Amino acid sequence: MIVDKDSFIKNIRHFSLLVGKWILIIIAIRLYGVEGLEVSNILLSAGFVLISSLVIGVICAIYVDFKDREPPK
């Protein structure tokens, strides 16, 4: 499978920005609270799942980058 590294890294950056926005929104709601809107444990666990998937994506990107490098001569 051929992976275009630039688009792959750009997709990971886009995904991390998206996840970061949602995490900030969840933290703001938890800290300040919104009347009639309570953040459930499901939403919090979904945030942790997104964070862990982001970490796995970054590790895969680093692996692809190192795998495609030329060995030193």
Task: Give a quick precis of the structure.
The chain has 73 residues and is mostly helical. The chain is built from two helices and no strands. The two termini are 26 Å apart.
Overview of this protein structure:
By secondary structure, this protein is mainly alpha-helical. The chain is built from two helices and no strands. Helix 1 (5-32) runs antiparallel to helix 2. The longest helix is centred in the N-terminal third of the chain and has 28 residues, at 5-32. The two termini are 26 Å apart. The mean pLDDT is 70. Keywords: Membrane, Transmembrane, Transmembrane helix. The chain crosses the membrane at residues 12-33, 39-64.
**Average of per-residue pLDDT values:** 70
**Order of helix and strand elements from N to C terminus:** HH
Strand content: under 5%
Runs with pLDDT <50, length 5+?
Answer: none
Keywords: Membrane, Transmembrane, Transmembrane helix
Transmembrane segments: 12-33, 39-64
Summarize the helices and strands and which ones pair or pack:
Elements: H1 5-32, H2 41-67
Helix pairs in contact: 1-2
Transmembrane segments: 12-33, 39-64
Keywords: Membrane, Transmembrane, Transmembrane helix
